[in-house]
Specification:
Helix content of chain B: over 70%
CATH class of chain B: Mainly Alpha
Oligomer: heterodimer
CATH architecture of the largest domain in chain A: Up-down Bundle
Number of domains of chain A: 2
CATH class of the largest domain in chain A: Mainly Alpha
Number of strands of chain B: 0
Structural class of chain B: mainly alpha
CATH topology of chain B: Helix Hairpins
CATH superfamily of the largest domain in chain A: NADH-ubiquinone/plastoquinone oxidoreductase chain 6, subunit NuoJ
Number of helices of chain B: 3
Radius of gyration of chain B: 17 Å
Order of helices and strands of chain A: HHHHHHH
Strand content of chain B: under 5%
Shape of chain B: elongated
Chain lengths: 171, 101
């Protein structure tokens, strides 16, 4: 077993366990902390996929900024705890889990049966080259400059919108 | 690149399913929101997987824009939740049914 496979298994287990724990914990603060762990595991998976820039952005933007924001709002509102996962409406929840598990089974079936995946023969050199900051920066500021500007406007609009929505009263 | 691409795709599908279960079963609006973030991230994992295995940076750029949109979405969504909490003093989505017919 090489280091690559070992790292994949470790990060995949971290992701799976933390995501399941996230949706089952009654306390929202603990849910948020498990989501941070999940994002950290995902950043590790991005590194095994040679996507260095996105891995760093994942840690800074998601695990850093967005989750701090979530924790801030949770502690500001201090919502009451829910009951244990299967205590409230257990039949409905088991039904939902079974349905989603069936859908997942279908997706897995499709992934293993699909032929086009066999046509992909990965080239390590090109994949390493695709993930560097240099490549992504060049693409972003030449080919994708318009979407980049649009994303800037979107963030400005979201900031103003959040201010207006969370303001106390309209004068 | 010794890991088969299917493993990454199945991991991503599993995380997406967990996100769906979270959205459908949890009653706290903030936790529902966090489940949506989980689903966004599992989609990101698929995009990065294909980007890496095909040696093309476009998928990673797309993930970058998804992150920008997710940040904007989190800001506006949590502002809406704060506004609702100010009016109804709850974030339980069973009690916020003002738009229900």
């Amino acid at each position: 077993m090489t280091l690559e496979i070992a790292l994949f298994i470790i990060f995949a287990i971290v992701c799976v366990v933390s995501s399941v724990l996230m949706i089952t914990r009654p306390n929202p603060v603990i849910s948020a902390l498990f989501l941070v762990l999940n994002f950290a595991g995902l950043a590790g998976l991005y590194l095994t996929l040679n996507a260095q820039f996105i891995a760093v952005a994942q840690v800074i933007v998601y695990a850093g900024a967005i989750m701090v924001f979530f924790l801030f709002v949770i502690m500001l509102l201090n919502p009451e705890k829910e009951k244990k996962f299967f205590k409230q409406k257990p039949k409905l929840k088991i039904f939902i889990v079974v349905i989603v598990a069936l859908v997942l089974l279908q997706i897995v079936y499709m992934i293993f049966l699909s032929k086009p995946l066999n046509a992909i023969n990965p080239e390590v050199a090109r994949s390493v080259d695709a993930g560097t900051v240099e490549t992504i920066g060049r693409e972003m500021f030449t080919k994708y400059i318009l979407p980049f500007e649009a994303a800037g406007y979107l963030l400005l609009a979201a900031t103003i919108g959040a201010l207006v929505l969370a303001k106390k009263k309209f004068e | 690149m010794q890991i088969p691409i299917e493993y990454y795709l199945i991991l991503s599908a599993f995380m997406f399913s967990v996100g769906i279960v979270g959205v459908l079963t949890r009653r706290n609006a903030i936790v529902v929101f966090m489940s949506v973030e989980l689903m966004l991230n599992s989609a990101n994992l698929t995009l990065i997987t294909f980007s890496s295995y095909l040696g093309d940076a476009t998928g990673q750029l797309f993930v970058f824009f998804v992150m920008a949109v997710a940040a904007a979405e989190a800001a506006v969504g949590l502002a809406i939740i704060i506004a609702i909490f100010r009016n109804k003093l709850t974030v339980n989505i069973d009690e916020i049914n003002i738009l229900k017919w």
